[in-house]
């Protein structure tokens, strides 16, 4: 098996997760250290502005190039902070645009620079081949969920609540269906940042103090995305216009947060799954929000647990996934499937950026 460091920076824009995993892209061996390095406030703000500009952003934009270099160096610091030898890196990059209906997906990050800084080969560009073939390009985690869940009884639903929510449905026969459910923590994080001195609804306190507005919630749930069957996927800002037109901005801080929690949960409850799951397992930052978890348990018919309940590391899961996918890229194995992204057939993807000959890893003092 290979020792692979997976790197994931999600749509919440809060930092980079890194995790070491032993894998050949089929079997999962020992999990090594995992960590998160936060983006500094300047980098996070710059990335947020790039996300807003992305549809019309030229690839040689100076602000983009500067942010990409800083982001890549932060990823190199995460590799160094793992502090263990590795054979390969899986580098997702930072998504700033995802429009599969236009055959566009854009994850920024300089894989060649990362390979030079770490003196390791870097698997990257995981989504482009899928989108070019007519797939949604997301989610890519289902094949890793299925490998982890090999000993668990199905049907099983694995829900990831990051900036966007996505679900993997693993049937009793092992069949996979996956799609984005709707907003995850993204709109709630933005709301909390705009109305409090916190960057998220920490410990669910803001939303727990409010009441969801049923009229605003109904307007949000009328979005046509919820009528589409899976597989389907979202950009972090796909609901921006609907949120702006919903009347949410007329609510107080607590009621607005409660409405956004209800929106996330109801989107999950309406997910078009082929059969009722026996259990829901929740990963991502949303599992740490007591308001979200309480409402999921009240709204869903099956038991709802954080993924730690079956021994998975919810903080490391997505980074581990990109370690697993990196090994699959190296082996030429499929990353996506008709039931996970809607691609016409199981499809390999990704590219490998080799390290420079004789390169030595850069040395970092990480924080």
Mean pLDDT over the full residue set: 93
Runs with pLDDT <50, length 5+? none
By CATH, the superfamily of the largest domain comes out as ATPase, nucleotide binding domain
CATH architecture of the largest domain: 2-Layer Sandwich
Give me a quick take on this structure:
With 367 residues, this protein is α/β, with parallel strands linked by helices. The protein is 35% helix and 22% strand.
Descriptive tags:
367 residues, alpha/beta, Nucleotidyltransferase, domain 5, 7-stranded mixed β-sheet, 5-stranded mixed β-sheet, 22% strand, globular
What does this structure look like?
The chain has 367 residues and is α/β, with parallel strands linked by helices. The chain has two domains: 2-139 and 316-353, ATPase, nucleotide binding domain (Nucleotidyltransferase, domain 5), CATH 3.30.420; 151-310, ATPase, nucleotide binding domain (Nucleotidyltransferase, domain 5), CATH 3.30.420.40. Helices cover 35% and strands 22% of the residues. The strands form two sheets. Strands 1, 2, 3, 4, 5, 6 and 12 form a seven-stranded mixed β-sheet that branches. The model has no long low-confidence stretch (mean pLDDT 93).
């Amino acid at each position: 098996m290979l020792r692979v460091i997976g790197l994931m920076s999600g749509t919440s824009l809060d930092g980079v997760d890194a995790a070491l995993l032993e894998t050949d892209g089929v079997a999962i061996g020992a999990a090594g250290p995992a960590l998160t390095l936060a983006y500094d406030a300047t980098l996070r703000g710059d990335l947020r502005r790039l996300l807003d500009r992305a549809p019309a952003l030229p690839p040689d934009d100076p602000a983009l190039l500067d942010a990409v270099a800083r982001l890549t160096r932060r990823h190199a610091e995460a590799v160094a902070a793992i502090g263990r030898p590795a054979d390969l890196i899986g580098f997702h990059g930072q998504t700033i645009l995802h429009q599969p209906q236009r055959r566009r997906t854009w994850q920024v990050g300089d894989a060649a620079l990362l390979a030079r800084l770490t003196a390791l080969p870097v698997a990257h560009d995981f989504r482009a081949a899928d989108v070019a073939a007519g797939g949604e390009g997301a989610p890519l985690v289902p094949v890793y969920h299925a490998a982890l869940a090999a000993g668990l009884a199905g049907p099983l639903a694995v829900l990831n609540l990051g900036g966007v929510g996505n679900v993997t449905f693993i049937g009793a026969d092992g069949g996979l269906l996956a799609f984005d459910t709707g907003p995850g923590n993204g709109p709630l994080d933005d709301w909390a940042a705009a109305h409090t001195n916190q960057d998220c609804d920490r410990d669910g306190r803001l939303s727990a103090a409010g009441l969801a507005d049923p009229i605003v919630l109904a307007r949000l749930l009328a979005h046509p995305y919820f009528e589409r069957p899976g597989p389907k996927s979202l950009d972090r800002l796909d609901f921006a216009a609907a949120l702006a037109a919903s009347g949410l901005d007329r609510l107080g801080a607590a009621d607005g947060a409660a409405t956004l929690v209800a929106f996330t949960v109801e989107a999950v409850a309406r997910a078009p799954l082929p059969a009722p799951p026996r259990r829901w397992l929740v990963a991502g930052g949303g599992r740490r929000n007591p308001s979200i978890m309480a409402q999921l348990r009240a709204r869903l018919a099956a038991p709802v647990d954080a993924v730690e309940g079956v021994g998975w590391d919810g903080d490391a899961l997505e980074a581990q996934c990109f370690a697993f996918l990196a090994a699959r890229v190296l082996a030429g194995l499929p990353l996506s499937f008709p039931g996970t992204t809607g691609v016409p057939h199981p499809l390999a993807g990704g590219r490998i950026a080799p390290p420079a000959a004789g390169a030595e890893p850069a040395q970092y003092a990480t924080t």
